[in-house]
Amino acid sequence: MYKEGNQEPNVWRRSFLTLWFGCFITALGYSMTMPFISLYLDTLGHFNNWQLNLYSGVAFSITYLSQAIVSPFWGSLADRKGRKLMCLRASGVMACTIFLIGTAHSVWMVILLRLLQGAFSGYINNATALMAAETTHEKSGQVMGNLMTANVSGTLLGPLFGGLIAGFVGYRGTFFITGILMAVVFGLTFLYTKEHFKPIPAKKMKSMAVIFKGLANRRLIITMFLTTLLVQSSLMSIAPIISLFVRELMHNQGNVSLISGVVAAMPGFGTLLVASKVGHLMDRSKPEKVLIFGLLITILVFVPMFFVTTPWQLGGLRFILGLSSAALLPAVQTILTIDVPAEAFGRVFSYNQSFQATGGVVGPLLGSLVSSLFDYQSVFLVTSLLILLNLVVVYRVVQHS
């Protein structure tokens, strides 16, 4: 773990900036392509509304499904071999698979490549675990908040860039450019990230059962995993169909790609505005309190989305959603950093990633199903109920702890 004065601050700072940039580009590349996945799939065949919603949900969530299955394996390997190697694996495979998606000529090829992408993903998760191990507890909230800022900044700018690129060179161009950017991340991570890691022999590694048995707040840790799942499900429920919803609100008139990108990016503006301040707040106060407050505000934002009639109303509410989102997953990660031993960071963060990935499966599929059975607005009522359930569970566990 990094201790000021014991290791060169410049080395730690260079590693942090490199990983910050890597997280930024990873989120940028992801959000450059994902808001338009349904529109891209629509160019690969002739589908009715039900088929397009279904294929969009599957293509969107298949990455998270494979990610949820293999993340524990990668987490165990990270605790034995180091998190830098995991960042290189994730960025390298992502560069290849996303570039190849741009060459796809069928829906099933896109789905297969996204399955492979999910199986080898995890750059942001491993970068977070690496910095958690390199940072003192006194700065963990600030570091988690800053990494969240990188993630959010990329998520914010990605749809805007993606919309512009798609308008000029088509949807395929966004995948080609994203693949090249991820190759750059691979090179920078290899050259400039320094990890003070001592490999742990497999025979000397404590099992997760032993580690969990020794935790003072086991219920709290398990609740954080559940929180990650429910929050991710709620935030991602509208993601694969947001461009279709915007197209409906615009009555299929105007630049749907650009407006979809703006609406998709609005939560990023809100989160970017307050992410750093939330990080400092978590270092001064209890992250559990910040998490509960964020869940409450999120519920109050989702309900009015049911009544929107224009893309700009939806965008405004999603901006407010971004303000509350800044207090959700970073708070969970800070709680995990404080309450889990450093020797298990890789596995615990990988388990958390599995729950996050499961939320990425459940949310889009749930959103596609609800929108197909009812309408797009109904998705927001369902997600608000999920967050309400999460709030009740978190409040009771925190009170008990």
TrEMBL record:
Its main location: membrane. SUPFAM superfamilies: MFS general substrate transporter (SSF103473). It is a multi-pass membrane protein. Pfam families: MFS_1 (PF07690). GO terms for molecular function: transmembrane transporter activity. One of its GO terms (cellular component) is plasma membrane. It is found in: Cell membrane. Coiled coil: none annotated. The chain crosses the membrane at residues 16-41, 53-74, 86-105, 145-169, 175-193, 220-246, 258-278, 290-307, 319-342, 380-398. Keywords: Cell membrane, Membrane, Transmembrane, Transmembrane helix, Transport. Residues 15-401 form the Major facilitator superfamily (MFS) profile domain. It comes from the Bacteria. PANTHER family: MULTIDRUG RESISTANCE PROTEIN MDTG. This is Multidrug resistance efflux pump. It comes from Liquorilactobacillus satsumensis DSM 16230 = JCM 12392.
